[in-house]
Write a structure and sequence with these properties.
3 domains, Recoverin, domain 1, 433 residues, two-stranded antiparallel ribbon, Rossmann fold, five-stranded parallel beta sheet
């Protein structure tokens, strides 16, 4: 990402969070502390948006941000990831306060979400110190002044000692966000395993969940957890395996076993389709607009799960991972999402905040977690902003209810052939001869 985009994304997210909290008028201590921290982030970055007498603020932004050094820019990318995660947690907090909208999130206690926000505030405070230091160093070097004292590093807060060693040795202790290509090369050398293009693409979708433009130490640390880097990548490979080929292989093996008069090995026994009900996960901030299609799907025996925010969808998908993996392997799972989504606000729908990248965000999330199921972006006026579907497998976008209905009905097909007429950008219904 270019410097202007990085700075703009961070400031925009910070201002959005600030506006959201201010409108909520929450008296919760943690929320107010978070508000103060986010406000400080905006204040520190505000000089990059100073106005010219000519009111041409764009030129000032270009002049101020375009010359930031690499350390400051990677620090901003790291900050952007933390802000994105914080925004997700705020959305969940709002959903939990809405009662009915939070029915599917009953397993998630309000205290859990508040604890996440408390952790977010602490991390943001630490990142704010690093960002402030990076900006000071940048300014002092330009003025040839003595450098300030460095605060605690992000790397000091990592749980995995191996991740810290890897980052310092292969990436650099002063780099807070690494480009995807550089990261994959470094990781391949570290674990001494060749990472193919598919594995790298999947891994980067997982690690760069909020599309900040690279991998941060904290995102890698969360992914690895208590495992070694080799173990974490090994699990990724197992999950990632091409489910269609596995299903085909198992089918062929069954046939051979029957022909030879032997039993099918239990360890590779495929999923019986009769035991897996077709399932659609539908993510839309206004699900009532889709009631006709949802009712039609349920009339066909398809289970439809309705979720109203990106954050709620992520949490529900994670909580029901085992069910969804099984349904995915059986090819009985499909996702439908809108593209631009009004994410929930605790006080009133009129003060919700528009997420213009909601469609791609959920698509990145699914592919980064190796879900191979089809994903259809079903939207309206924002259809021209859905060309991103062309960069993903088994993804499409449409404004047509007929295309969406056909996509739903195709879920009931049990043959190896799959209808992909919907898998493109701005798909229109076929014209009958």
């Amino acid at each position: 990402m270019d410097p202007i985009s990085i700075v703009s994304a961070v400031v925009s997210t910070a201002l959005t969070i600030q506006q959201w909290i201010d409108q909520s008028k929450s008296r919760n201590t943690i929320i107010r502390e978070l508000s103060t921290t986010v406000s400080r982030i905006s204040t520190i970055l505000s000089p990059l948006f100073a106005s010219l007498p000519s009111n041409d603020s764009t030129l000032v932004l270009v002049d101020a941000a375009a010359h930031l050094d690499t350390t400051t820019l990677t620090c901003l990318q790291d900050m952007g990831e933390v802000l994105g995660r914080t925004q997700d947690h705020l959305s969940l907090w709002s959903d939990k306060r809405r009662g009915k909208r939070a029915t599917l999130l009953s397993f998630l206690s309000p205290s859990t979400v508040i604890n996440e926000l408390r952790d977010d505030e602490k991390i943001l405070t630490q990142r704010l110190s690093l960002l402030s230091f990076a900006l000071q160093v940048f300014a002092f070097r330009a003025a040839q002044l003595p450098l300030p004292t460095r605060p605690v590093s992000t790397l000091d807060l990592l749980r995995s000692a191996e991740v810290k060693r890897f980052w310092v040795d292969k990436i650099g202790g002063d780099v807070f966000c690494c480009s995807g290509k550089q990261f994959c090369v470094a990781l391949s050398h570290w674990i001494n395993i060749h990472l193919d293009e598919t594995t790298c693409d999947t891994l980067l979708l997982r690690l760069d969940e909020f599309a900040v433009g690279g991998v941060t130490p904290s995102s890698l640390d969360r992914f690895v957890g208590r495992q070694t880097l080799r173990e974490a990548i090994g699990q990724l490979g197992i999950i990632q395996g091409n489910q269609l080929l596995i299903q085909l292989f198992n089918t062929m093996l069954i046939t051979l076993c029957r022909w030879a008069g032997t039993r099918f090995p239990v360890s590779v026994k495929p999923i019986e389709l009769r035991t897996v009900r077709p399932l659609i996960v539908w993510i839309d901030d206004v699900p009532d607009n889709n009631e006709y299609l949802i009712d039609s799907a349920r009339a066909l025996g398809i289970i439809v799960i309705k979720l109203t925010s990106t954050a709620a969808a992520k949490v529900w998908i994670n909580a029901n991972d085992e069910l969804l993996r099984r349904t995915d392997r059986a090819r009985r799972l499909r996702f439908i999402s809108d593209n631009a989504r009004w994410e929930s606000h605790p006080q009133s729908p009129s003060s919700d905040l528009l997420n213009l990248s909601a469609g791609e965000t959920i698509l990145r999330y699914l592919r980064g977690r190796q879900y191979t199921s089809p994903v259809l972006i079903y939207c309206g006026a924002s259809i021209m902003h859905t060309q991103y579907v062309l960069r993903y497998t088994r993804a499409g976008s449409t404004v047509s209810s007929a295309v969406c209905k056909g996509y739903i009905e195709a879920l009931l097909q049990r043959s190896d052939w799959e209808d992909e007429s919907w898998a493109s950008f701005d798909v229109q219904p076929a014209i009958s001869a």
